[in-house]
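Teaching assistant's notes for section 4

Start the section by putting this record on the projector. Ask students to predict, before seeing the second block, whether Crp/Fnr family transcriptional regulator will look compact or extended. Collect guesses on the board.
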Amino acid sequence: MNPCNHHSVSIKEMQKLCVSLVPIFNHLQPTEMEKIVHATRSASYQRGEQIYGAGDTSAQLFIVHRGLVKIFRLSESGREQLIRLLEPGDFMGELALFSGSPFDHFAVAMEQTELCVMTREDLNAFIEQHPKISLRIMEEFSRRLERAEKLISCLTSEATEQRIAAYLVELADEHAANSFTLPMSKKDIASYLGTTPETVSRKLAEFQENGWIEQSGQRNITLLDRYALQNL
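Reveal the predicted structure now:
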C-alpha cells in the first residue's frame, strides 16, 4: 500500500471519528455525516501552542478530536481568567463564526491536540440542509451560559473553600464516580475559581486532613465525605 494513501485514509478516519463525537452532528445519518467529514480539514497543535487569540477573527469552527484546549481571558493587569476546558467532542469559535466579531479570549493547546476545522460557508450550508444542527448549537450555548452563571454566582457569593469544594463535587458528578483525575493544574484551577495556587493546595490539604478527600499523586482525588463538602 502506498504510505501516502495510508496517511490520507488515517486522516479521513480521524475526521470521521472527530465529527461523530460532536453533539451538534451525531444525530445525522451516516451519508450526511460523510459529507461533513469531507468538508473538514485537520490541524495539529503542540502543548502551549496558541490556536487563536483575543483580537483575532476567524470564519472557522474548531472541533477537538484529541487533546485538551484551554479557553481564557486576560485582565488589564495581565492576570489569566480560565473560562473552560475543551475535551474531545467539544467545539469552539462558534460565536466569532456567526457574528464575525473578533475573539475576546485565547485558545491554547494544553497538550498535543488535534482539531477538525470547518469553514463558515460549509457550516451554514449544512445548517440550511439540516436545521436541527442549529438547535443543537443553541442547546450547547444554553449549557455554557448556565455554567457561566453558576461560576459567576459562585465567585461572588461563596468563600474560597466553598468554591473549591463545589468544584470537586462537580467533577465527581461529571465522572459519575467519587474518584477522578483533576483535568488541569492547580494554577489553572486557581485561575478558574478566582484564587491562588497556594490557596488551592492548602485547602485540598485541609480537606484531606478532615477526612473529606484523599489525594494521591499530583492530580488524583477521591471524595470520602461528599456531604461535608456540599455543606461547607
